From TrEMBL:
<dbReference type="Pfam" id="PF07995">
    <property type="entry name" value="GSDH"/>
</dbReference>
<dbReference type="InterPro" id="IPR012938">
    <property type="entry name" value="Glc/Sorbosone_DH"/>
</dbReference>
<protein>
    <submittedName>
        <fullName>PQQ-dependent sugar dehydrogenase</fullName>
        <ecNumber>1.1.5.-</ecNumber>
    </submittedName>
</protein>
<feature type="signal peptide">
    <location>
        <begin position="1"/>
        <end position="25"/>
    </location>
</feature>
<dbReference type="GO" id="GO:0016491">
    <property type="term" value="F:oxidoreductase activity"/>
</dbReference>
<feature type="domain" description="Glucose/Sorbosone dehydrogenase">
    <location>
        <begin position="89"/>
        <end position="420"/>
    </location>
</feature>
<feature type="compositionally biased region" description="Polar residues">
    <location>
        <begin position="27"/>
        <end position="43"/>
    </location>
</feature>
<keyword id="KW-0560">Oxidoreductase</keyword>
<dbReference type="InterPro" id="IPR011042">
    <property type="entry name" value="6-blade_b-propeller_TolB-like"/>
</dbReference>
<dbReference type="InterPro" id="IPR011041">
    <property type="entry name" value="Quinoprot_gluc/sorb_DH_b-prop"/>
</dbReference>
<feature type="region of interest" description="Disordered">
    <location>
        <begin position="27"/>
        <end position="65"/>
    </location>
</feature>
<keyword id="KW-0732">Signal</keyword>
């Protein structure tokens, strides 16, 4: 993906003539400095080596600032071990720790199970509506209501077959006291429009400090529907903010505007399968980009994150993304991007006591690169990156912190595993 000749020419001309437009000049100077420091994707030297050394897919593209890609490698000093808590889960997609140590797990074909502290896998929980399983679709994320210990209410996302194709839906229900079935099941939200496809359903569910439900939605991938990530009368390629009843949450930025979906919180996303709030209440997502364009984004109300008009990377064919640039006024820059990609799925900011050195770090599952990624973030910039569990060669689909401070992960395999990371004794 290349900038237009006109944009590059104007930028160079302004630099040569000392143009004094302060806001644009600051951005151009920052970008130019980053390019001077980084060259072909290498970071500004800070007495460290970049963790990523592979050749980038889009080698002609340059970051907008030095910390935007290829961070310094860091290494965990605390010895830890990985325990296989359960085996034989079919394509697990999400794991949600419960306060008593048990774990709620979804399987993409349409089953939800409880895994006990000892690793015993329950029979499928009864009462789920039918899912449209296939490709990237099926039973996807699950999230506990903020008052779960009292209400036993849970929320889940899934691919629902509808006339003309399918789309992401969100349902809620009450987990029975014996945890064998769901009661009072309601489909509280249905994304529109329907599309006949099997890709980019997004579907992470996260409750914010405000008590509202944040839902990430993909733009469904196909060329004909991809532009809807920028269209306000579509849910595709958006992050939504809902009440627990599934309606538009009060204070949403576009509510009341003509021909705009009122649930929209942010615009211009490709396929978000990783989302988490940090210790300061800030909302972060890790977005599956095109080839060479996975992004870490700090989400802010009403902002546009660019896809498909602004993006790093290229099409899977190796061709540029038509009409796209890597940086443009009016669109949010990613805090960080990966080229080559990691295929991010699942995210968790660590806040536990088991690993003090991980406090405040962001953990991200990697499907394509088959590892667990740890990011150290300071002042909203990535200052270090570590790749864990690389020796296991497993696709990490989700990662969550348990009440015991352990990290729990599920692997995206036909016979998937539930893993537990604890300090080594």
């Amino acid at each position: 993906m290349k900038r237009s000749f006109l944009f590059v020419s104007v930028t160079i001309l302004f630099a040569l003539n000392g143009a004094s437009c302060q806001s644009q000049s600051a951005r151009n100077n920052e970008t130019a400095q980053a390019q001077t420091n980084i060259g072909n994707g290498q970071p500004n030297p800070k007495d460290c080596s970049p963790l990523e050394t592979r050749k980038p897919n889009a080698s002609n593209q340059k970051p907008a600032f030095p910390e935007q890609t290829r961070a310094c490698g860091i290494k965990t000093t605390t010895a830890f071990e990985v325990k296989v808590l359960a085996k034989g889960l079919e394509k697990p997609w999400a794991v949600e720790p419960l306060s008593d140590g048990a774990l709620l797990v979804t399987e993409k074909p349409g089953r939800m199970r409880i895994v006990s502290v000892s690793g015993q896998i329950s029979k499928p929980i009864a009462g789920l509506p039918a899912v449209d399983y296939g490709g990237q679709g099926g039973l996807l994320d699950v999230a506990l209501s903020p008052d779960f210990d009292k209400s036993r209410k849970i929320f889940w996302s899934f691919t629902e077959a509808r006339k003309g194709g399918n789309a992401t839906s969100v349902a809620s229900g009450i987990l029975s006291a014996d945890r064998t079935r769901l009661e009072n099941v309601k489909i509280i939200f249905r994304a529109l429009p329907v599309h006949d496809g099997r890709h980019h359903f997004g579907s992470r569910l996260t409750f914010g400090p405000d008590g509202f439900l944040y839902v990430t939605l993909g733009e469904r991938s196909d060329i004909e529907i991809r532009p809807q990530a920028q269209e306000m009368n579509s849910h595709m390629g958006k992050i939504l903010r809902l009440t627990p009843e599934g309606t538009s949450a009060p204070g949403n930025p576009f509510a009341g505007k003509k021909d705009v979906m009122p649930e929209i919180w942010t615009v211009g996303h490709r396929n978000v399968q990783a989302a988490a709030f940090d210790q300061n209440g800030q909302f972060w997502i890790v977005e599956m980009g095109p080839q060479g364009g996975d992004e870490l984004n700090l989400i802010q109300k009403g902002k546009n994150y660019g896809w498909p008009l602004v993006s790093f990377g290229e099409e899977y064919s190796g061709e540029p993304i038509q009409g796209s640039v890597t940086d443009k006024a009016g669109f949010e820059r990613p805090v960080y991007y990966w080229d080559p990609v990691i295929a991010p799925s699942g995210a968790q900011f660590y806040s536990g006591k088991a690993f003090p050195e991980w406090k405040g770090n962001l953990f991200v599952g990697a499907l394509r690169d088959q590892k667990l990624v740890r990011l150290k973030i300071e002042n909203n910039k990535v200052v270090g990156e570590e790749h864990l569990l690389t020796e296991r060669s497993q696709r990490i689909r989700d990662v969550k912190e348990g009440p015991d401070g352990a990290l729990y992960l599920v692997t995206d395999e036909t016979k998937g595993e539930l893993l537990k990371i604890v300090p080594k004794q």
